[in-house]
Write a structure and sequence with these properties.
By secondary structure, the protein is mostly helical. It contains eight helices and three strands, in the order αααααβββααα. Bound molecules: fe (iii) ion.
Length: about 210
C-alpha cells in the first residue's frame, strides 16, 4: 500500500497570522506531498513498502546506500509530527506535568525557550529543532536535513521545521521570528504532554525489570 499524505489536523488558515494559509498550503500541499510521492517511488517493490515510516527510518538510518529512502521517509514522518505539534492559540509556558518537567530539565520555561531559539538560529542550513526525551531527561537540539531522533533511540516530543521553505513566504530570512511565533503562539503542549506520558509508560517496564 502506497504511503499517503496525511491531512492537516487543522484548517489551512487556522494558524494565521503566525503561519499564513498560503505558506501552509505550499508547505503541506507541495513540500510534504512531494516527500510522500518520492518515497512511494523509492520503496516500490522493496520490503520497505510494507513497513511503518518509523521502522523505515530506523532501518535506513546511517546506511549510505539507503540515504534517499531515509531522507524521504524521515521528511514524511517529521512533517506529520510538526503539524501535530501545533494548534491555533497554542504556545507559551505550559502548565501541569509537562511544565514541571521542562522547569526540572532546563531550570525554567524561559531557559527552555532560549535553548530552543539558540538551537534554531545556530543551526546552519536546513534541518529540524527537536525537544526529546533522552533516557530520563528532556533535551533540545537540532539535526541537519531530514534528521530524526528515532534513529538514535531518543523519543521525539516536539519538532520545528527550520528549512527555509517553512518560513520564507511569511518571514523571509527571519528564522528567529518564525521560531518565536512557533513557541509563543503555536505549540500544542497537550500533544507534547501526551507524547511524554507515552514515553514514560514504555520506559517504566524496562526500569522495573532492571531493579
Ligand atoms: Fe518542511
Amino acid at each position: 500500500m502506497a504511503f499517503k499524505l496525511p491531512p492537516l489536523p487543522f484548517a489551512t488558515n487556522a494558524l494565521e497570522p503566525h503561519i499564513s494559509k498560503r505558506a501552509l498550503e505550499f508547505h503541506h500541499g507541495r513540500h510534504h506531498d512531494a516527500y510522500v510521492k518520492t518515497l512511494n517511488l523509492l520503496v516500490e517493490g522493496k520490503p520497505y513498502e510494507k513497513m511503518a515510516l518509523e521502522d523505515i527510518i530506523r532501518r535506513s538510518a546511517g546506511n549510505p546506500g539507503e540515504r534517499a529512502v531515509f531522507n524521504h521517509a524521515a521528511q514524511a514522518w517529521n512533517h506529520e509530527f510538526f503539524w501535530n505539534g501545533m494548534q491555533s492559540h497554542g504556545g507559551g509556558e505550559p502548565r501541569g506535568a509537562i511544565g514541571d518537567r521542562i522547569a526540572e530539565s532546563f531550570g525554567s520555561y524561559a531557559a527552555f525557550r532560549a535553548a530552543f531559539l539558540e538551537a534554531a538560529t545556530g543551526h546552519f542550513g536546513s534541518g529540524w529543532v527537536w525537544l526529546v526525551m533522552d533516557v530520563d531527561d528532556l533535551a533540545v537540539y537540532s539535526l541537519p536535513d531530514a534528521g530524526n531522533p528515532l534513529s538514535t533511540d531518543r523519543v521525539p516530543l516536539l519538532a520545528c521545521d527550520v528549512w527555509e521553505h517553512a518560513y520564507y513566504l511569511d518571514y523571509q530570512n527571519r528564522r528567529r521570528a518564525f521560531v518565536e511565533s512557533f513557541l509563543d503562539h503555536l505549540v500544542d503542549w497537550d500533544f507534547v504532554a501526551a507524547r511524554l506520558a507515552r514515553a514514560r509508560e514504555t520506559r517504566a517496564p524496562a526500569r522495573a525489570a532492571a531493579r
